[in-house]
Amino acid sequence: MFLLMSSAFVRTNVLSTCKAKLPDKFVTSLTNLINYSLQNDMNNSNIQQEKQRFMNGLWPQKTIELSELQHVGENVFALNGIELPADDKFTSSYDQTLGINSSQRVMVKEASGETGLTNYRNYINVASNLQKPKSVVIIASPENHQLAEIVPIVDEYISPTVFFDFAEMMADETGYQISDVRFNNAGKPRITVVYTNPNGRTHRFGPGEDFMMDGFYLTWTPSNVELGHYYERLVCSNGQTVKEERKDNTVYKLSANEIHSIIGRVKNKSFFAICVEQFGKLLKRASSSRISLAEMKRAQKILIAENVNAEKAEHLIPYAEVCSSYQNAGLYDAKKEHLMKGEGTIWDTYNVLTQFASHTTIWKPNDHRRIAIMNGAVGLLKREPDIVNYLDIY
């Protein structure tokens, strides 16, 4: 019965949850903040059309206590006495939610068989939920009618309707305009709303390094809302830009306190001032730091993790080629990759990742893999370099 639930069922339950969580003023006029890749301010008509598109494509989902979901055997689970088939990914995620790793799973199965593994899963589920019951969102595929995703709830379930209202409130309270909204509504849902200052200023960190630094974004999943800075970097004389995002804060419920805290943080003048100062320091350090072989490997993995094929990833970040050069010279040591100089600086590699994420044509403009790669690139920038350049008179 769960597997045949319509999106309308999900929307009805989401709305009722929303009204129970927030005062009426937080659940009012927003009808949509979903848009594939609108680069200009969205009018109300756009918003309503795109919200409908998002909700219609949202996979069936239900919020439950984890202890209610029992493992029956193989990829089959039971909820309220109804057996539900699942795919391999769901079963693996279920184990991770329980704290069961792959080696434990193999060990138990070898010792006690499939029945023993089922009993072990159910025992861990009950035991881990005795003192503090966990809630999860389970998501089913409308295509194969199987459980496909499980999302642990850290504090409280955050409905998309609550998030939409909050997103509109942010625009009203801060004076920033919604310039871009991206989403994924198949499988594990995710929405990113980008805000732009209508009077935005350009910050120059060096020749050819011009950035718009005073934008921000909100990203929603069923378990959290993320606040971060949004950068637009001018990369060409014709005005072409690269868009980058950096996380600042994450909340795991949207009560009035969290809402006022996030709004207050963005309205604080130091929010963007600190961003500019910190980014300038990171840029300077990355520009003067030679990338290590280990950092090249890490950068290439950022691409491969988002299903960029290995050949393309190697073309962008030639980790294997540099490895081969060290091997041919008899100098390669897998344990010392962090000490081996790679190709170019950390800033060079950062640019490769962000420009690919912005301009590749293999994905739709709203694809969240672009954001994941950009976040990975910023992570590389923020990490302490393996190789730090310094002056040496010898």
TrEMBL record:
InterPro entries: DUF932 (IPR026325). Pfam families: DUF932. This is DUF945 domain-containing protein. It comes from Prevotella brunnea. The lineage of its organism: Bacteria, Pseudomonadati, Bacteroidota, Bacteroidia, Bacteroidales.
